[in-house]
Amino acid sequence: MATFELSEREAATLVRVLESYIPDLTTERVATDHRQWHAELKEQEAVLGDILKRLKAVTS
Q: What are the extents of the domains in the chain?
């Protein structure tokens, strides 16, 4: 597992970016008819959603 440290400002910025990006990713996934691309986008959503949840837990 790779680890690195973020300042509070960096973590807050990353939270805002992820909160903005994930809904767009969801919209793109729902709109695609390509099964493999749909699956890849779904996996990205899950990974980024988990990162966002963990970031929020340590920045709250």
A: 8-59
